[in-house]
Amino acid sequence: MVEQCKKGNRTTTTFSSVGWNEIQKDFNKKTGCNYTDMQLKNKFQKLRKVHKELKNACKQMGFSMDPSRKVILAEDDEWEAYLRGHPNAKNLRTIGCPLWDELQIIFGDATSEDKDMSLCPSRDRKDNAKWTRKEERIFVELMVEQCKKGNRTTTAFSSTGWKEIQKDFNKKTGCNYTDMQLKNKFQKLRLLHKEFKNACKETGFSMDPFRKVILADDGDVWEAYVRDHPNAKNLQTTGCQLWDELCIIFGDITTIGEYTKSFRQEDEDTSEDEDTFEAESINSLSDSDEHQTTRHISFGSLDPLLTLDAMDDTSQEKSPISPKRAITLKDRKRKKFNNLKAFSEACMAFTLESMYRINKDRKKRLTSVPLHDPYPLSRCIEVLNNAPCLDAKLYGKAMNLCMHSYWREVICQVPRELISQVIESAKEP
Q1: What is the pLDDT of residues 146-185, one digit of tens each?
Q2: Residue 25, class by beta-carbon neighbours within 10 Å (0-12 exposed, 13-18 middle, 19+ buried)?
Q3: Contacts of 175 (CB under 8 A, 6+ apart)
Q4: Global pTM?
Q5: What is the rounded CA–CA span in Å between residue 420 and residue 397?
Q6: How many CB atoms lie within 10 A of CB 127?
Q7: Where are the domains of the chain?
C-alpha cells in the first residue's frame, strides 16, 4: 500500500481500482495466498481503525507515544478511565501499532503538513532519540528550574515552561529535539519515579540512599515482585539515579496544592472577620484604639511594616477617629500582600524542612545501618589477583567494571579461567 501511495494510486479515502489490482496481485504472489480484493479491503479498514485509535489516544492530556515501541505511555488510573470510554484501545499499551510510520503514509497524515504531523515519529525528524546520561541529567535539571519558576501545573509544565526547556536543552546539548520528544521522555521519567516510589513502599524493600537502587531482604520476594511489576526489573541494578530531582518534579506539586487549598480557606475566614469588624460601631475612643491595635498586631506578625503602623496608630491619641471606621482599600491591599508573603515564606520553610529531614535520614542510614554488599570490591580484587592470563590492561579495565555492582557479581561468579575472556569482551558502561 505504501508503494501504491508513492505511485499516486491513493485517492482521498482509498486506492484506485488500478492500485487495488496491483496490491492484490503482488500480495498473493509474495505470500502464496489467494486473497480476494474484499478480504484485503476489510484488512484495510481494520488498519484504519487502529491508526485512528492510536492517533486519538496520543491527543489525550497526559498520554504520549513511545517512539521506539509504538505504544501508549500513560498512568494506570488515567488509562483505565480512558478505556471505559474507548474499549477498542485496550491493546494500545501492550501491542501498540508497530506499523505506525507506514500507516501515517497510507492514511494521509505523513504527507500532509497539518497539526497531527507532530504525532508521527520518523527517522528523518530524529524522533527515535537515544538519550545519554548527560542529556537526561541536563533535561531533569532544566525541569527543576521550571518548577522553581512556577511553570509547573498539576500534571505537566505550562507552554512557557516547555518552550524554555526545549530552547535551553537544545542549546546546552547541541541536539535538535522536538517538544514531543521531550514530553515522551517526561512520561518515561514519570513512570520510573512511580515504579521506584511504589517499590520503596513494599515490605522488605528499602532504598540505598547513595546508589539510589532498591535493596531487597529476600531475593525470592524480589523475583515475585518483578513478575507482577515487570517495569521494575532494573530498579535493583540501574535504579533511579535522579531520584531527588524527580521528587521535586513529580512529588511536591500535590503537597503544595493541598497547602494552597488550606491557605485559601484561612484567607476566606479572615475576610469574614473583616466584614464583621466593618459592621461594628466604635462607641468610645479607648475601645476603638484597643480594638484597632489588636487587629493590626495580629497581621503585623507577618510583616514588620504593619507592626510599626499599629504602634503609630496607638501612639497618636490626638488624631480624631470616626465613630464608624471601615478598613480602607489600602489596608486591604496591604493585608493581601501580607498573606501572599506569608504563604511564600511558609512554602520556603516547608521545602527547607523537607530537605533537612531527607539529609538527616540519609546520614542516619549511612552511619547507623551499614550497607550489605554480597560482592564487595575487596572480594573482586582478590579474585582478579588469582585470575590467570590477566595483563595490566585487562586488570585496569576490570577495576573500572568493578565500580558497578552488576560486574562485581559477574567477576565473582564466573570461573577464574574465563575471567580474562569475559573482561576483554565486556563493554565499559
Answers
A1: 888 888 877 788 888 889 999 999 999 888 888 888 988 9
A2: exposed
A3: 129, 135, 169
A4: 0.38
A5: 10
A6: 20
A7: 1-110, 133-262, 377-425
